[in-house]
Design brief:
Rossmann fold; 3-stranded antiparallel β-sheet; about 30% helix; about 30% strand; globular
């Protein structure tokens, strides 16, 4: 499907799939959404410790890059697994402006290595951040009791409802350790019910710009 780079309301870029009218990040602000959903309501719950994170939809690498920056500030050691079936191209990568928008020029090489480094193996991006990218469909995830935190950033249920089902959330539940957290921008009632059906305790939280609510689930 045709993809193009667009600017979001906070000045940061994202990728739009034109046929679906769907974006990798919120049109109301890609960076703002990432911080609100995944850092404020996810990473911040795990201070001063070693943490394993699974991202559903590695995509542009924005969530991983912000997590790298925040881990350094928060003295957190991160092992980050990003699952993505359709990686961004190098042409698309060169048009993403996250390094400049985050004023993180000192980490340009880190961001590029996240994308250009090998798949299916651990990469040391920095002293306290290990990344493994896995190129596969989400349905093939079969980890058990491995992760402390899941960033669930798949395309919306409007265009890919199969990614927001009990079958997928059962895999997420299994992949999390006890007391593990899954956080997502989504707020649909059907998504909340699917999470609850597989055992999650789910809470509604104020959403990022442009969304009234979001969901956070605990195992």
């Amino acid at each position: 499907m045709k993809r193009k780079i667009i600017f979001t309301a906070d000045g940061s870029t994202t990728i739009q799939i034109e046929d679906w009218d769907e974006q990798y990040h919120s049109k109301h602000g890609a960076v703002q959404e990432a911080y609100h959903v995944f850092i404020e309501h996810g990473l911040s719950l795990f201070p001063d410790r070693k943490i394993a994170i699974l991202e559903i939809g590695f995509g542009t690498g924005l969530n991983a890059f912000i997590t790298l920056l925040e881990a350094r500030k928060r003295t957190i050691s991160v092992h980050y697994t990003g699952v993505e079936a359709y990686p961004v191209s190098d042409t698309e990568l060169q048009q993403l402006n996250y390094v400049s928008e985050l004023k993180a020029e000192a980490y340009t090489a880190h961001f590029l290595r996240m994308h250009r480094g090998p798949w299916e193996k651990d990469m040391e991006i920095s002293k306290n951040f290990i990344l493994q990218k896995q190129k596969k469909d989400f349905s093939l995830i079969d980890d058990t009791n491995r992760y402390d935190l899941i960033y669930f950033d798949a395309f919306g249920a409007r265009v890919q409802p199969e990614l927001w089902t009990e079958a997928i959330f059962s895999k997420m539940y299994s992949a999390l350790k006890k007391d593990g957290i899954l956080t997502t921008y989504a707020a649909k009632g059907s998504v909340r019910r699917a999470m609850q059906a597989v055992g999650f305790t789910v809470e509604r939280l104020p959403g990022p710009p442009g969304k009234r609510e979001m969901l956070r689930a605990k195992k």
